[in-house]
Each structure stands twice: as structure tokens, then as C-alpha cells.
Design the sequence.
């Protein structure tokens, strides 16, 4: 999936990935896509929950060898 | 109107404080408005780490000597083992790049989380405002807490 920016959260545990995502998204324009890299399995549940509450759109989660690529579209 | 979250932090132990700030930062990252009310032993979390704590009377002086507090002095609720267990847990946190309590407190503050200290405990224990870190937003009682908890979507007692 294509993204405008990438945020590396490899090696970081909750709540840092969503904290970093919230801060990073502030720098993006509405409609832009952020790719979040994480190796914390919790991200699979946490990012959809975060998106639901904040009103941003979760475009998808790709999993490969214990690493996750999460795509969030800034909608709010 | 953002959703409100209130946390009562009544415990002065490292693991409980970590949980409280973890939730506070998560909620703030989700766009919620967070207030943390520190009461009883929880006041130890927001005491400043440097210098002494002044208080009057032998009982209160003794209490504040035994119960100095400050984010750097908190013990684990389990496996403190004269400091060895707590030291080890802090090492393990570093090992997985997890922020130390002081960093979590800075992050929470940066996200606009409000710190409120309970004046009843302060009066009872004989400690005044200068015992606390400057990040404390206000000093108040239960009515202030309840007024916010009434509108709170999430209210937790830790």
C-alpha cells in the first residue's frame, strides 16, 4: 500500500505507538496516509480501536514475519 | 466536546503509577480530556524528587521522613526486595524501550493531562504545595473530582 509518510515504532510497546501516531498525524494533511511499522502484536487490536475513537480511517494491516504495517488515513 | 476521562490515583507504587500514566497517555492520544486526581499514597507520585519535605509536629515529620515520595523513590507493589526488584524492573523497561515513569509524566503533561492534588490528604499529612512538582495544575477536593467524573466516560480508581 502507498503511504505519504512512515512512522517506525519497531521495538516500542503500548501506549507509545498510538501516542506517536497521534502526534505524527498532526503533521499530515487531511486525506494523507500514514504507514506505521510495529512489532507489537497489540497493534492489531489497538490501532483499529484508536481509529474508531479518533475518527480516522484504518485502510489495512499487513502482517509479515511478526512485523505489522498499519495504514491510517487522516480523516479528522 | 471531547470525552472526559478521570483517574483517581490512590496508590503510591511504581506499577500502579505506570498503569495510571499509560492509560492517561492512551486516552489523551485518542483525543480525550484526562484529569488525574492524586490522593493519599498517590500524592507520592507527584512529589518533587529533590530536597526535603517540610512539615510541622513530630508525627507528621516522622511520617514524611518515612514516606518521602517522589517519582524516583516509588517501589514495586511486589518484588521490591529492598530496591533490587524495582531496580531490575526499571532495567527491563529500558530493555524494551519503555519510558521511565518521569518520561511518561512528561508525555502526559505534553498532551494536556491535568494533575490535581488532594488537599485533604495534604492537610492530614501536613505537606504543602511546595512539596510537589510544578506540573501540578490544581489543589482540590472531592467535589472537583465528582464534578468531572459526572461527565466522564471513563472513571478509574487506581
Sequence:
Amino acid at each position: 500500500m502507498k503511504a505519504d509518510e512512515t512512522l517506525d515504532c519497531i521495538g516500542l510497546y503500548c501506549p507509545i505507538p498510538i501516542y506517536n501516531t497521534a502526534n505524527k498525524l498532526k503533521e499530515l494533511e487531511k486525506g494523507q496516509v500514514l504507514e506505521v511499522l510495529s512489532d507489537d502484536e497489540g497493534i492489531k487490536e489497538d490501532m483499529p480501536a484508536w481509529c474508531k475513537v479518533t475518527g480516522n480511517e484504518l485502510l489495512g494491516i499487513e502482517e509479515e514475519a511478526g512485523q505489522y504495517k498499519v495504514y491510517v488515513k487522516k480523516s479528522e | 466536546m471531547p470525552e472526559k476521562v478521570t483517574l483517581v490515583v490512590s496508590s503510591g507504587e511504581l506499577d500502579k503509577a505506570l498503569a495510571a500514566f499509560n492509560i492517561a497517555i492512551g486516552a489523551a492520544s485518542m483525543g480525550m480530556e484526562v484529569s488525574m486526581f492524586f490522593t493519599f499514597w498517590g500524592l507520592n507520585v507527584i512529589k518533587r524528587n529533590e530536597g526535603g519535605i517540610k512539615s510541622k509536629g513530630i508525627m507528621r515529620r516522622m511520617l514524611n521522613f518515612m514516606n518521602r515520595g517522589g517519582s524516583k523513590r516509588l517501589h514495586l507493589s511486589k518484588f521490591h526486595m529492598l530496591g533490587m526488584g524495582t531496580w531490575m524492573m526499571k532495567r527491563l523497561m529500558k530493555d524494551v524501550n519503555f519510558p521511565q515513569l518521569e518520561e511518561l509524566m512528561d508525555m502526559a503533561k505534553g498532551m494536556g493531562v491535568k494533575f490535581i492534588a488532594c488537599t485533604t490528604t495534604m492537610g492530614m499529612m501536613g505537606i504543602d504545595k511546595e512539596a510537589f512538582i510544578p506540573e501540578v495544575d490544581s489543589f482540590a477536593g472531592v467535589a472537583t473530582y465528582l464534578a468531572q467524573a459526572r461527565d466522564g466516560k471513563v472513571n478509574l480508581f487506581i
Summary: The helical segments of chain B are 14-29, 58-66, 84-95, 101-110, 119-125, 142-150. Chain B has a mean pLDDT of 95.
